[in-house]
Amino acid sequence: MKSVQHKMSDQQIWYDFRNGCKIAFAQLYQLYAKDMFQFGFKLCSDTDVIKESIQELFIELWNNRQKLGEVEHIKSYLLKSFKYKLIRTIKNNKNIVSLQINNKELKQESIESLIIKEEINQSRTYLVRKSISLLPDRQIEALHLKYYQKLSNQQIAELMQIKVQSVANILQRAIYALRKKVEKKNVI
After folding, report:
1. Domain 108-184 has CATH 3.30.70.20
2. Would you tell me the crossing angle of helices 153-160 and 164-184 to the nearest 10 degrees?
3. Residues 60, 84 contacting (CB under 8 angstroms)
4. Of 154, 149, 114, whose CA–CA distance to 132 is shortest?
5. How many C-beta atoms surround the C-beta of residue 13 within 10 A?
């Protein structure tokens, strides 16, 4: 979780960016482009498209900076904007691997490494991966945002356009389902 001091500096960076400060703009890019890239790779396997979408989004942000309002959670705002930008790019270009095709890759992502310790053996890892691949897409997305992107439930709710309680429910159901499946096999 970010400290209050860091959160205030994020707010100051956003304020300065909106007022035309190129240094603040560069800081936004440095702070969040890597997270955007990682999140984008969950939606599309074409790294060039992801990089291009990030750059296009930052160009749009710069060109429209004076129209932008205050943003409380900058990371979630940027991830949400990037998600829609990338989805539009994918829809407009038939040659790009679509979300539906790439969702199988997302389901196979090693979220389990955040749930169980690194010392687990290969059979445990395989079992958890298999269990994750059986989860609904929304649960996989919520787990990724919570444990990889380190977003709060409030930020996840904004990004997924659902209520905070719904995020908590989705995460709880996902973890419960994983535990149930893993315990059923008597591995952990």
Report:
1. no
2. 100
3. no
4. 114
5. 19
Q: What is the pLDDT of residues 60-110, one digit of tens each?
A: 999 999 898 888 888 888 998 998 898 888 888 765 554 444 444 444 444
Listed by start position, the domains of the chain span 4-92, 108-184
* CA pseudo-torsion sign 65, 99, 110, 135: positive
Q: Is domain 4-92 classified as CATH 1.10.1740.10?
A: yes
Q: Residues 43-58: pLDDT tens digits?
A: 787 888 899 999 999 9
DSSP 97: P
Instruction: Give the chain's length.
Output: 188
> What are the angstrom distances between the C-alpha of 147 and each of 10, 48, 101, 106, 152?
21, 25, 23, 14, 10
Total-model pTM: 0.56
Kind plus residue range of the DSSP H or E element containing 100: helix 99-107
Best CA proximity match to 67, nearest among 23, 32, 19, 31:
19
From 11, 5, 82, 94, select the one nearest 41 (Cα to Cα). Answer: 82
Residue 116: partners with Cβ closer than 8 Å, 6 or more residues away:
124, 128, 188
